[in-house]
Amino acid sequence: MRPRAARPGAALGAVAIAAALSAFLPAAAAADPHGTAIVDARAGRYERALPVLERLVREQPGNAVYRHDLIAVLSWADRHAQALAASRQLKLDKDTPDYVLAAIGHSALHGQQPARAVQAYRLLTSRKPADADAALGHALALLDTRQAPQSDKQLQRVLKLAARKPALLRSAYEALSARAESERARPFAQRLAALGQAPAAPQAVQPGQATQAATVQAPNAPPEPPRAPQAAAVAEAIPTPAPAPSPDFEALLQAHAGRVRAASALLERDYTPARYRLVDETLAENARLSAQAEAAGRPDLVKRLRQDRVQALRDRGDMAAAVAEFRALDAGTEPVAPYVLLAAADALLALRQPEEARTLYKRALAEAAEVNAHGGLLYAELEAEDFAGLAQGLDHWLAQSRQSLAARRAQATMLRFANRLDEAQATLSALMREQPTDSGLWLEQGELLAQRGQPRAAQARFERVLTAEPGHLRARIGLANAQWAQGDVEAAATTIASLRAEAPEHPAVQRLLREWEQRSKSTLSSGITRGFGQGLVAGNSELLWESSYQSGQSAQGLRAFANHHLARARFGGTEAQHERLSAGLEWTRRDLQLTAELGQDLRNAKDTVWAAALGWQQDDHWSWRLRHESQTNDFPLKARQPDSQAGAPTYLQASRTVLGGAWRQDEQRRVAADASFYDFNDGNRRQALALSWQERLHSSHSRTLDLTLAGYTSSNTLPDTVYFNPKRDLAVSATLAADWLTWRRYERSFNQRLSLTVGNYRQTSEVRLGTAIVERSFGWRPFQELRYEHEWQWAPSGNLRYGIGSRRFAYDGVYESKLHAYLNALWRF
Known about the structure:
Layout: H1 17-31, H2 33-42, H3 46-59, H4 64-76, H5 80-86, H6 98-110, H7 114-127, H8 132-144, H9 148-161, H10 166-178, H11 182-194, H12 247-267, H13 277-295, H14 299-316, H15 319-330, H16 338-350, H17 354-367, H18 371-383, H19 387-400, H20 405-417, H21 421-434, H22 439-451, H23 455-468, H24 473-485, H25 489-502, H26 507-519, E1 523-533, E2 540-550, E3 558-571, E4 574-589, E5 592-601, E6 608-617, E7 622-629, E8 654-666, E9 669-680, E10 685-699, E11 703-716, E12 728-745, E13 748-769, E14 772-795, E15 798-811, E16 814-828
Antiparallel strand pairs: 1-2, 1-16, 2-3, 3-4, 4-5, 5-6, 6-7, 7-8, 8-9, 9-10, 10-11, 11-12, 12-13, 13-14, 14-15, 15-16
């Protein structure tokens, strides 16, 4: 089966903010889909906002707010026919919000429904008589319905209300000129000339062709939630007054800002190499416009373009260039816009500079409440390993948003990444009670279940999401991981191949592909333990050296392996040793793993040996294993000495069969039992039973504390052997194991571990007294073991673990004390 990572959240540390936010922000959208859809719409991300709003309307057709906002966003996205269709049954009256009236009027003008436009704008102008935009829309609608006198009255109002608003005057002039109403357009041209803003010659418009200039501006957005300025609103973020740009430059920059937004929006839905086409075009256009603005002596326009360039460079993935451009801008005397702070913070996080990214996210939040900034700040705290800052950021967001669903959803996610899984589960359960049909919460549940070692339950959640939203990328990624964790290598390969073909540029897909490629790498591990002390049973000057090689796993789940085992120790004046070399195959299928191994002893009898094993994962909780070894390495080393036992074969050995089962609730609790049967070639038969119960007492981002209660009992049939062989014995113990993640920086980390075992041991043996064999009990004898170790993870490809320990145990009533040191290394290649 696929091994589980100790903390899945740690993988995020190795991913740029594009990957982090691609995982988090869609999740936040799922927790508060309506609010986040409006944020997306305000930012021009209509392709993301509209499916959410459409789904909300389908699910709750009686919710007027959802329907109103869908109509408005369809209008903003220039999907006028759809906006009109969605509003067809809507009665326009005193209860219709202003922004909906403006949206319907706007789309009706574009959709050749001027009567509907008149109806909408008449209501809007009656409510807002000082609104020049509404007056202009009303005038154009009246003109299109051949109500020229009424239209002229409204145009006079526009001239008065917009006397010092060049942008609106220009819109009126261009709209009237596009309709060949030169006489009605002339007063607006004259007013623009008086303001020093003489309009350019109008472009010819084919009959029936709609242009942006031919209507009023898009309607205002719903009042909540607030947003940070985007590329098209850069001028508002620069407080220092600048000379009004020429009409040509202003139009060029507005169009350029729209293309920057469009390029960003494309990145949200296209994850093929073609996704960068628009970004590359906007970067080239940005360079041309910057040169033109500089040649014209317009530093204000140059700055606006440079700010847009930071965003475009971030979108292109040129993070170092984006940061360099931002730093040059930030060194100036004027502040940069919040959207530029966000883009630079994202780039810094991608460059693995989370501390500096955190500073910029905080600056962006101070200037504008933006979900992106909240989410980015949380990931910056996470990657900086500042969990106190993470908790503070969450508390601030929860308080500021009045416990919004998006903030609480983020809280559940961050609790999961901080390894506080019970708290994450409690938070998610509360959210699910409020939003039981929210597919985004099903997704979060799936990821939490996967982290807790329950891939089957996780797969069910991911499939439920895909039923509601076919093609959901994050759910498909979760499904691939769940299939892989169950050993279903072929199904996982199919899912991953489809993700590679459809979204090769998605950061989370790329992360999954990197992990999948690790599967095909070979692994070499080696560990050596050296013991010091005196003992008749355990020996002294012990040496144990074990090495293992594993090939990469094939597409069919096959993996080759080889093992080397060397053990030796001194007993009095003689040395006992055992060495074996073996190789085999491992075959992994869904819920099953089969292993076959063939080996050769290199010392003593030099026998050929074999082993076979079967592992079955019944479900997310129950697992079973069966293994048989023709000659086990788990054999008393003292008996490896030739002719060590009178009346027995020259070389002693034993076969071993193990039947085991385990029940695992999650990472908090595990119960296991193993029954072992040994058949010694001297006639002895040993039966052993081992039981264990493990409880996690504490879990946090950097520390865990586990308690393991264990019991062991065995019986043997042959008395008076050269090796330790009690007739029956019983041991009970308790082990406290503490793990402290002392330091981590992305893939590199340093752990310290300390474990203490205390227990009691009771032994009954048959001993020889003269020529007689008598039974003797040695009573209960306490024992102790202490171990301390370090583990360094220097890269995904390898780690190093070393430690020291001591043990005191009684054999035949006599205590033997041992010190030992060990070193283990692992390398993937």
